[in-house]
Amino acid sequence: MQNILVRQPGDLTIDWAQRVVNKHYPHIIVSSVDIVSVDIGTTTRIRVKVEHNDPAILPKNWFVKLPSMAWQARLITSLPRLLHTEVRFYNEVARSVSVRVPGFLAAQSRLSRGATLVLTDMTEIGVTLGSPGDALTFPQAALVVEQLAQFHACFWNKESLNHTYRWLAGPVRHLEDFLGTAMAVPLMKRGLHQAGELVPSTLHAKAVHYARHRRRAMRFLKGAPQTLVHHDCHPGNLFWKHSQPGFLDWQLVRFGEGISDIAYFLSTSLKPETRRLHEKELLEIYANSLEENGIADIDVNTLLQRYRAHLIYPFEAMIVTLAVGGLMNLENNHELIRRTATAVEDLDAFASIPF
User: Fold this and answer.
1) Fewest CB atoms within 10 Å of the CB: 86, 206, 207, 279?
2) What is the b/e burial string over 204-243, where b = at least 16 CB atoms within 10 angstroms of the residue's CB?
3) Rounded Cα distance, 355 and 67, in Å
4) What structural domains does the chain harbor?
5) 3-state percent helix, strand, coil for the chain, nearest multiple of 5
6) What count of other Cβ atoms lies within 10 Å of the Cβ of residue 71?
7) What is the pLDDT of residues 18-64, one digit of tens each?
């Protein structure tokens, strides 16, 4: 197997690019590699231009993801091996999903040496990339909800999931859950302090209470039919081509309840007034789309109750993002805290979980 693992942008050499190419196109010869941009967040994201002799077959613009060079992000993401999870997603799952994902060139990971993911740079093929602070319209949201329903239906409550994708529920996921619970209270307190008036004061005590009882809350939230979920479906992890959505950043993919993706998506992607106006209709679209894709006996009222409960996680995720720092542009982080806090308050989400 060609070794394509690298640690930093300076390692993206002609020799490295040739090893990537050799995995599928050994006849193509790389002549130069130029770094276009480097962005450091939860991962180090690098855009490179690769000159070679067959652009009709292989794109010249690549998007490379490496472990983050920011120590805070690396601390949060290295133990649960989030980029390793995304590498396995592209190597083992991506071809089976019904939603649009970026073009995949190569990926490799090793526990002791990190992970490297090489994708097609989406901007080369006329794609519009989302930003975390984007506010979607109702028609856009409906398209995303329908796509998520199709994705969830493909894997809905299938016993084969645990066998085929055992690594998604293995020791690494248990470690992530343990770390999330162990750090829940200090990170929630720190994030709430930093958020200040972005979070209504009426939510502070409830949020800390949830953090103290997070393990029990997680058990409740897992008590429903399981499927494959994206688990990080905010507007910055979407792309659009010909007005149709696709999904980026699969580091957090896992088994979970499908409505959790809908709660995360609606609470982060819609302005509160848009969400309030169309929330119920979008849940009905999700239920109808599931039924159209073979999932029967979906009760919208039950779905609404589960949706309320799952609103807590995107709120927690945005608060923790702020507490850790360096994971998201601060302005965008603040906006998503406003949106998720408003959703939690509007639907009294904390009251939906039996602590």
Assistant:
1) 206
2) eebbeebbebbeebbeebeebebbbbbbbbbbbbbbbeee
3) 36
4) 9-123 (3.30.200), 128-352 (3.90.1200)
5) 55, 15, 30
6) 9
7) 999 998 899 999 999 999 999 988 899 999 999 999 999 999 999 99
